[in-house]
Amino acid sequence: MPTFADFDRRNYRSVDVVTGYDGWAPTYDDIVMPEMDLALLDRLEQVDWMSVHSAADLGCGTGRTGAWLRGRGITRIDGVDLSPGMLSRAATRGAHSTLTLRDVRDTGLRAETYDLVIASLIDEHLPDLAPLYSEAYRLAVRGGFLVMVSYHPQFMMVSGMPTHYTSWTGEPVAISTHLHLFTDRLTAAAAAGWQLMETSEALVDDTWIESKPKWGSLIGHPFSVALVWRKPS
Ligand SMILES: C[S@@+](CC[C@H](N)C(=O)[O-])C[C@H]1O[C@@H](n2cnc3c(N)ncnc32)[C@H](O)[C@@H]1O
């Protein structure tokens, strides 16, 4: 099977998740565009956000996803992340009910508790998707939703670009990035018990180029994808 290394055109020095996101935390919110993830959430039709009472936000980062959920009227949002730097920004933002420093594959959160589990722009950091899909399944109530927003494998392969940031010294640094084809996602989710409800892709268009002028040759390619899953009732 191909790995991201087969497509890497940047060859930046690569660091682990905690080192990378602790380094990126101060500038993360200035770099990530809403079109990459929040605009995809805006477009989803299967999740009735107003009827969600409790959500687990896996890989909650600085709290952007949590703030979006709170804006949809969700009052109980528990965030989990491995990076103390990102979590401290999330604490300042104040969108979450609780914040836990822990791995999303073993959150320690209570089983069968959440109407919604969400993991946005995180799964490219996991070498294997199965543990994330099964932990999410453990957390969700029957009939609950899982929303996964992912860095699109097509974009990763065409651009050869890992998830990366510019360090305070000006060096571009990659954060350990893994390629997951759609079959990997569908297989891992189905094995955990999830049923696919909806998909949506965010395509690079002219408005993106204002923020990312070097991406001109990538217009029309999907940057990210949202998959909506449901746990059977
Ligand atoms: C690109 S950020 C996304 C943050 C937020 N969901 C958003 O959309 O802005 C990815 C986050 O996932 C976290 N992360 C990556 N792998 C993780 C793991 N195995 N367990 C917990 N958090 C993880 C990182 O620390 C980082 O904060």
Please describe the topology of this protein.
Elements: E1 13-15, H1 17-31, H2 38-43, E2 54-58, H3 64-71, E3 76-81, H4 84-93, E4 98-101, E5 114-120, H5 130-139, E6 140-151, H6 153-159, E7 164-166, E8 172-175, H7 182-192, E9 195-203, H8 206-211, E10 222-230
Parallel strand pairs: 1-8, 2-3, 2-5, 3-4, 5-6
Antiparallel strand pairs: 6-10, 7-8, 9-10
The structure holds S-adenosylmethionine.
S-adenosylmethionine binds next to helix 1, helix 3 and strand 3.
Fold and architecture overview:
The chain is of the alpha/beta class. The chain has one domain (4-230): Vaccinia Virus protein VP39 (Rossmann fold, 3-Layer(aba) Sandwich). The chain is 31% helix and 27% strand. The chain contains eight helices and ten strands. Helix 1 runs parallel beside helix 4 and helix 5 runs parallel beside helix 7 (182-192). The protein is globular. The protein starts with 12 loop residues before the first strand and ends with a strand. S-adenosylmethionine binds at residues 17, 21, 32, 37, 59-61, 64-65, 80-83, 86, 103-105, 120-122, 125-126.
Q: Which key terms come to mind for this protein?
A:
233 residues; alpha/beta; Rossmann fold; 8 helices; binds S-adenosylmethionine
Q: List the total number of helices.
A: 8
- The CATH H-level superfamily is Vaccinia Virus protein VP39
Major sheet strand order: 4-3-2-5-6-10-9
CATH architecture term: 3-Layer(aba) Sandwich
Unreliable runs: none
Small-molecule binders: S-adenosylmethionine
Strand and helix order: EHHEHEHEEHEHEEHEHE
Distance between the termini: 35 Å
Helix content: 25-40%
Content-based structural category: alpha/beta
What share of the residues does DSSP label as strand, in percent?
25-35%
Shape: globular
Number of strands: 10
